Amino acid sequence: MRVLVAGGAGYIGSHVVLALQQVGHQVIVLDNLQTGHREAVENVPFVLGDIADETLLIRLVSEYKIEAAVHLAAESTVGLSMQDPGLFFKHNTGKGAVFLDTLVKSGVKILVFSSSAAVYGSPINMPICETHRLNPVNVYGATKIMFEEMMRWYEQVYGLRWIALRYFNAAGAAVGHGIGEDHNPETHLIPIILQTVLGKRQKVNIFGNDYSTPDGTCIRDYIHVSDLSRAHVLAMDALSAGEAGGIYNLGNGQGFSVQEVVKVCERVTGQKIAAEIAPRRQGDPPILVASADRIKSDLGWTAEHPELEGIVTSAWKWHRSHPWGYSKPVLKDERK
Ligand code: UFG
Is the peptide bond before 323 cis (omega within 30 degrees of 0)? Predict the structure, then answer.
């Protein structure tokens, strides 16, 4: 199929592009490069632009004969969403609405949407199923629910066929493909730990050790970005085969505390990591662990890299070979 990937130059987007290409889909990337990297999608037709540029979208759909889309173009820094909610409502909800409307009216009625575990807020049951109550504790999560709701209405009114994938903690990199995680500023735990190993930071701040978890630090469910990306392919294929859409969690069903992640990173890198307890970060739920049973049974998804050690190893290969991310020359061939 000819698939438009909005936000395809981002960390997860570039891995989704790779996964789609690997099974023979023709991919066109639309990205404004606000946070994405042109280098992450070098061998793909690339269009620099905004998801809310109706004229551009209509032209793209017609020129490339787009049949389906993946939407990952969103503001995603959780903390920022609580400092500037308007930015998130304008971008994720407002521009998202223009994107959705234009696509559907141009005849593109298959959409895979990048949603998030942030829709659940502080969960009451673990592992979290898709039927769990939605109770976001940040604006970012609220905008993800809003877009899911929009898709529901577009299904009813226009026959949109859609799948929302609620990601838990994406990590790692597709080794050998020259793509990996490069956010500026970086806020995610694993890259921050690895940047510390590389001497780019003095220490890791562990945000709180007084949570109601065995070691007091927050527990998360880390999923390899390539496993997460393959789920987009399965979702796309299911929709194009006429199967029902819906909502799916994406995680490994296993939780690791911040302290445990630090230890795994020490094992993988062979280095002692300087870490210090810092105050809690606002809006962090103590535990987030997914039940991915629904996507396993409906779409046949399984994780190829479920072990945290393997996920960190792939991330470490990327960081070691790209210590400055995409912005500077590669130091060492990551394939070695
Ligand atoms: N953490 C630290 N120190 C750091 C960075 C993170 O202790 O320097 C902790 C956080 O407090 C959290 C855990 O490490 O407990 C993981 O934090 P990340 O920032 O890596 O990831 P989050 O769980 O906050 O966020 C992820 C996704 C979001 C999504 C969210 C759902 O990145 O997009 O899960 O809650 F919204």
Answer: no
CA dist 16 → 21, 38, 294 (Å):
9, 15, 20
Distance 307 CA to ligand 1 centre (A): 18
Radius of gyration of the CA atoms of the chain, in A:
19
Q: What is the pLDDT of residues 172-212, one digit of tens each?
A: 999 999 999 999 999 999 999 999 999 999 999 999 999 99
CB 314 within 8 A of CB 322: no
pTM of the model: 0.97
> Which pLDDT tens digit goes with each residue over 277-325?
999 998 899 999 999 999 999 999 999 999 999 999 999 999 999 999 9
Tell me if residue 200 falls in helix, strand or coil. coil
Pocket of ligand 1 (CB under 6 A): 76, 78, 116-118, 140, 169, 187-189, 192, 204-207, 218, 220, 258, 281, 284, 288
Report CA-CA distances (Å) from 168 to 90, 125, 281, 287, 289: 24, 15, 18, 11, 8
